[in-house]
């Protein structure tokens, strides 16, 4: 599926201005460029284009609110200077698995003043001597490189943090559903208790009937029992 068609499907009858997240992973980009994405996606905060065959981000539209950009597993080897112009408020950038070989390729990222997290896993640049130290010097605004800060402390799960509010809402909805379910179940419990009581009363009545029958039978037997003493005396 090509990128234009994928974008159309992802819209799901929404207008581009309603979209805050757009995931285009594993679709096909013709000529290695971004297609079908326009400045109409003015509210877009998260864009993922993993493994779509990109060689360039030159066609990226102006997205002022974009915070997170996933470009991993593509064939990008340069041209990153457009990011500062097109996505000035970018905070997270993932370039893992691209063809970035030297520090000069990522030097234009210095203009991304809000950039806090950069991933370059599986790029040749990571094989350079003092790679981490030099990247932090080149991009002083960075807090995390490849998931770790300067002191090798692991970054928190930024995705989880970003959607904490959504998770909380889901939990609240679940709690409401559970409470409603408990209220609905209550009458059933009462009915079950009532049935149990009716069954117990029925059993008691049966016991009384049985005991009554036994007493009647006993009395009848006693009344009609022959007096053996009279036969002996005779």
UniProtKB/TrEMBL annotation:
It is found in: Nucleus. Residues 128-146 form the U2A'/phosphoprotein 32 family A C-terminal domain. GO terms for cellular component: nucleus. It holds the Pfam family LRR_9. Residues 149-214 are annotated as: Disordered. The keyword Repeat applies. SMART domains: LRRcap. One of its GO terms (molecular function) is histone binding. Residues 166-211 have a biased composition (Acidic residues). Belongs to the ANP32 family. Multifunctional protein that is involved in the regulation of many processes. PANTHER family: ACIDIC LEUCINE-RICH NUCLEAR PHOSPHOPROTEIN 32 (PTHR11375), ACIDIC LEUCINE-RICH NUCLEAR PHOSPHOPROTEIN 32 FAMILY MEMBER A (PTHR11375:SF1). This is Acidic leucine-rich nuclear phosphoprotein 32 family member. The lineage of its organism: Eukaryota, Metazoa, Chordata, Craniata, Vertebrata. The gene is anp32a.
């Amino acid at each position: 599926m090509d990128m234009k068609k994928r974008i159309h499907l992802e819209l799901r009858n929404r207008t581009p201005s309603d979209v805050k997240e757009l995931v285009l992973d594993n679709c096909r980009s013709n000529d290695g460029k971004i297609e079908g994405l326009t400045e109409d996606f003015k509210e877009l905060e998260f864009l993922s284009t993993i493994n779509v065959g990109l060689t360039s981000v030159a066609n990226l539209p102006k997205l002022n609110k974009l915070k997170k950009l996933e470009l991993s597993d593509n064939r990008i080897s340069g041209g990153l200077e457009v990011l500062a112009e097109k996505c000035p408020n970018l905070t997270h950038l993932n370039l893992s698995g691209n063809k970035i070989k030297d520090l000069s390729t990522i030097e234009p990222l210095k203009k991304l003043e809000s950039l806090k997290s950069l991933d370059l896993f599986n790029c040749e640049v990571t094989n350079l001597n003092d790679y981490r130290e030099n990247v932090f010097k080149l991009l002083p605004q960075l807090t995390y490189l490849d998931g770790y800060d300067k002191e090798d402390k692991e970054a928190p799960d930024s995705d989880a943090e970003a959607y904490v509010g959504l998770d909380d809402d889901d939990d609240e909805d679940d709690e409401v559903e559970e409470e409603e379910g408990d209220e609905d179940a209550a009458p059933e419990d009462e009915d079950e208790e009532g049935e149990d009581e009716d069954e117990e009363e029925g059993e008691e009545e049966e016991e009384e009937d049985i005991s009554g029958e036994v007493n009647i039978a006993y009395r009848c037997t006693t009344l009609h029992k022959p007096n053996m003493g009279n036969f002996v005396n005779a």
